[in-house]
Structure formats: C-alpha cells, structure tokens
Design a protein that fits this description.
two-stranded antiparallel sheet, mainly alpha, 4 helices, 2 strands
C-alpha cells in the first residue's frame, strides 16, 4: 500500500495508483513503475485497479479516525461500512457499491 515509500499509506499512494491505472489503460509503457506493481495491489487480486486505491483511502480514513477514536469505535465504523457496502464484479472489474444496489450493464 505504501506505493511512494514515504512510510505511510495515504492519499498520495492512492493518487499514484489511479494515475498508473489511467496511463496503463491509455497504452503507456509502465515498465518503469514496478514499485506500483509491487505495493499497489492491496486487495491481493493480482491486478492494479481503482479498487486498490479505494482500499488505500479507506485505510487512510480509518487511521485518521483512530487519532480521535478508540479501538472499539474504529471496529464499529468498520462493521458499519461492511454492513452497508459490498464488493461486486461489474463489467469485468470489482467495485464497491451499497449492498443490494444494481448496476446497469454497458
């Protein structure tokens, strides 16, 4: 998750992953960006996708909350998130949606 190697997982790492995904989809040679491949696949599905950036941001937000909340409150927030959202396959990729939400096919 710490794609830029600064010792934290934060918005900067998510931004690098999103830029990588965008440039890769545009056909740019991304062979010089092995560090993104090494640290960017945070959900372990073998691919670098926007979902990885989403998980980085989720982690970052939970860490920010931990600065002002105790562990029990953090666990409650994670449970609430997991109860309301789910990961689904959509058009060949995984995405986070509200539970029960339907996606229109392209």
């Amino acid at each position: 998750g710490d794609v830029n190697g600064d010792g934290t997982i934060d918005i900067s790492d998510a931004n690098i992953v999103l830029g990588y995904v965008s440039d890769l989809a545009s056909g740019f040679d991304m062979s010089e960006f092995e560090f993104v491949k090494k640290y960017g696949d945070v959900n372990g599905d073998g691919r670098i996708t926007p979902l990885d950036a989403t998980w980085m941001l989720r982690y970052y937000c939970m860490r920010a909350v931990s600065l002002i909340a105790d562990d029990a409150k953090i666990e409650e927030l994670i449970k609430t998130f997991d109860e309301k959202f789910e990961i689904i396959d959509y058009d060949g990729a995984k995405t986070i949606v509200k539970k029960g939400e339907k996606r229109n096919e392209k």
